[in-house]
Amino acid sequence: MTVQLLSANHGAALAATLAARANRKGRGFCSGVYPITPSTECMEYLCVQQIEKGRVIRVESEHSAMGVCIGAAAAGARTFTATSSNGLAYMVENCIAAACLRLPVVLAVANRTLGPPWNIWADHGDALTLRDHGLIQFYCADNQELFDTVLCAFRLAEDRRVMMPAMVCMEGFILSHTVAQTQIPEQGQVDDFLPLTDIPHRLGNTPHTLGQIEIPHQTEEHRWQHHNAMLEVPRIYAEIQNEFEAIFGRRPADAIHAYRADDAETLIVSMGTIGATAERVVDMLRAKGRRVGSLRVRLFRPLPAEAIRACYAGKQQIAVIDRNISLGLGGVLWAETRCLADPGAVVQNYLAGLGGGDVRPEHIVAMLSDLQPREIAGPPVMMEAL
Description:
The chain is α/β, with parallel strands linked by helices and 386 residues long. It is built from 13 helices and 15 strands.
């Protein structure tokens, strides 16, 4: 185990490289890549790595990048790509195809605002456009977590009980270009952690098709199978955490990360790096005698609803902070979790950091000041209005 100073972009690429080498005795590795800010450094770093059995293919578009991964995964290879924002939007058709074909592609997304007007800073809205299409989604808060989650994503996506793409999300520039100390395991440890890729429905000597026309009943059955496999992800991820800890000596982050939440009366709920800021606010307010806690949702698809419900239990006031907006409704995390609170609890939505704006401790304190006198929840509140 070594410690390296890495950006999250480079960390994702290095994790993918180690995973690629771990499949050298199997059917190898393949990545299709096309640059887009702020994910470009991930693929640039990947392109210069030495991978014994595999290729990184530079293509003409994000759509083709995922197309390469679909072809390689269908042939049984381990696959990875990275993108962001409008690049992900261009890739969406093939992301859905990979999901419906149950191909375990790992996709690193440097979250960036969709445009036009053009904005290159962080917003979860790009990845959340795919929340309903059968891809696992993780949202990370720091570089180590990002590195560990990419390794876990390969193990999870390729599990025969899962077999679907996995997205590992990092906020553009906030993580993608921030350098931090990151623990990097030895190749032998990664070899022990990642079995050889074995895709049971890969194309081979037995003739069969992928992506053929099907009748309505078949589509219904396939969606139900996919849904049930998605529901198994939290349990299988917990198994993977145990094996990761046994091999690497540290435990990857849970599907949800609760901080001083057990006895809290007020809960701050978020995804990504806002969760780290929320924990600072919790410590500050606890020192003043306020019973505040934090919940960071890492695994958004499948949504670990029962775990969130258990954390929401007994909380009188819940502030859900979204770095995204579902236009005409409000924040996506708030919309999906407000029903999990106790009856009578105030679950108020705050929209913060849209388009990459800073979300500082004083902003979260202002949200809690707005929440405190509320007896019922109101419409979503934009941070700038506080």
